[in-house]
Specification:
Non-ribosomal Peptide Synthetase Peptidyl Carrier Protein, Chain A; about 80 residues; single chain; about 55% helix; mainly alpha
Length: about 80
């Protein structure tokens, strides 16, 4: 299992218009035109299901980039 690749795949699943060229671990929620509350919920749900983990409310609100999702996921495994 490659955690980085798995988290990246979740981003591409949540944002189907995202290209490999546009993907950036540091890119924040504000830089995604379509990162709304539904997209946030989708990211969380897909990640929790994939890795069989649960995020706290504080963790959910702090996830604002692929990097932050990756780091919080790593801390749970």
């Amino acid at each position: 299992m490659n955690l980085d690749d798995d988290v990246k795949k979740i981003f591409f699943e949540t944002f189907p218009l995202l290209t490999e060229y546009d993907f950036d671990w540091e890119k924040t929620q504000n830089n995604y035109e379509d990162w709304d509350s539904f997209a946030q919920l989708n990211l969380i749900t897909l990640t929790e299901a994939k890795f069989e983990i649960n995020f706290s409310d504080d963790e959910i609100t702090s996830i604002n980039s692929a990097k932050s999702l990756l780091e919080i996921t790593k801390s749970k495994l």
